[in-house]
Amino acid sequence: MKESFCHPLKGWFLKQKEETKLLFYSIPAVVVALFVISVVTMNLLANKTIYENEWLAIDGGILVSWLSFLCMDVITKHFGPRASFKITIFAMSVNLLCCLIFWVVSIIPTEMDFTSFNEIFGSTWFVLLDSTIAFLISGLLNIWSNYFIGFIFKKNPDGKLAFFVRSYVSTIFGQFIDNLIFAVLTFMVFAPIYWGFEWSFVQCVSCSALGAIIELLFEVFFSPFGYWVSKRWKRNCVGQQYLDYVKGEI
Asked: Which end of the chain has fewer CB atoms within 10 angstroms, the N or the C?
């Protein structure tokens, strides 16, 4: 019984390993690099609030978070949702590694005063936890909503309208969920305990909605470039070996 269970499980893991290796061999490195950089810098920039009043608060992470979702949209369009999710997990893993390195550096004692540096690069553990949970859930929602919206455009799935609708709808949905989960966990669950203040749920929702709208505007501005990349990949048969593999042709 145990051997019969382990055999298909082992086969599944071997298949996933081979598929993942082929994906990283096939996907353009520039897009992966931009995706990883945006995820890492998003958490660093989130330490600075660039606008705040009694109802709203916007942090610096909003300036690059749109890039993460645009990369996910382009990858999902060409390579499929499973590939996009694997790249998302990879980006999150790199982010966690970077945060660990930043934290180790921040606790190393020195004679000079690096308080500001330590506060930024050795950020509170629950901020990292909240951002990881929020990005994982919102990333999944963004990827699969983008994928399923594509079925609406069966007559012209590669057209501009299909790409832009998929990108805009999935982005504002994913960004709102990402912002909301992060705000609720950080400012309603942990902040009262560790920082001595808290946000109301209304503040969390309003900040999340405004943030999603601003991030969507960034993507609207840059999405024509994403569409151009998507068309170029298709025209040049980028990653065709991976696409054939997942279709079971090789």
From this structure: N
